[in-house]
Every structure is written in C-alpha cells, then in structure tokens.
Amino acid sequence: MKKIFLSALMAVMVCSIGFAQTAKKAMEAKDKKYESVEVSMDKVPAKVMTAMKENGIEKAHVMKAYEVKKDDGKIYKFKVKSGDEKMKYKFDANGKLIKKEKWSKSKDSSTQ
Predict the structure, then answer these.
(1) Has this prediction a pTM greater than 0.70?
(2) DSSP secondary structure letters along 29-87
(3) What is the reported pLDDT for 103?
(4) Segment 24-66, tens digit of pLDDT
(5) What does the alpha-carbon distance between residue 92 and residue 86 come to, in Å, rounded to a whole number?
(6) Cα 26–29–34 angle (5° rounding)?
(7) Residue 91 burial by CB count (10 A; 0-12/13-18/19+): exposed, middle or buried?
(8) What residues form DSSP beta bridges with 37?
C-alpha cells in the first residue's frame, strides 16, 4: 500500500513540475509580444525618413529612434523635441503614420 501511495505521490509531483515549467514558458512568451531596439537614424528605412519629412519632423530634432519587431512586421518609433514641444511618432515600415502624441515624463496625452 505504501508503494502505491508513494508512486502516486511521485506521479503528481512530476506532473506538477512539468505543468509549472510549461506555464512559466507560456507566461514569458505572453510578456514578450515584441522586441524594441534603439537604432541610429541611418538604420531607418528611406520610406520612413520621407514620411517623417512630410510630417514636418526634422532629423536634427529626433532625440531617440526605436525599431520595434512584431509578428506582423516592423514599426519605427521616434521621440522628437522641437523647442518646448515633445512628441512621439510611430510609423510602419512603409512610412505610414500610425500614431502621433504629445509626451512628457509625467504623463502622455494623445493628439490624434
């Protein structure tokens, strides 16, 4: 009887450990929806650079640029400062403006 009980207990423990590892991997995959990397402006595609110029964004005012890799493609994010105004822009790889918003360290407020 003790052998059966110990065998059942071991089986439950093995299943629990396996389930915990599977759940941990699933949570890690869920948390990592995209990969964002800071890039220099010379790594930004020409289509995106053209779209930035068309939207009045001067290269000299770009504080930071990021390439975001998602399952469905790449997005380019920019933090821009012109005078006292700070803006965030998002473009897809073809240069389409996805989002434009004002930003500050305390809070973000959308303008589009």
Answers:
(1) no
(2) HHH-S-EEEE--GGGS-HHHHHHHHHTT--GGGEEEEEEEEETTEEEEEEEEEETTEEE
(3) 81
(4) 665 555 555 778 899 999 999 999 999 999 999 998 999 999 9
(5) 20
(6) 160
(7) buried
(8) 67
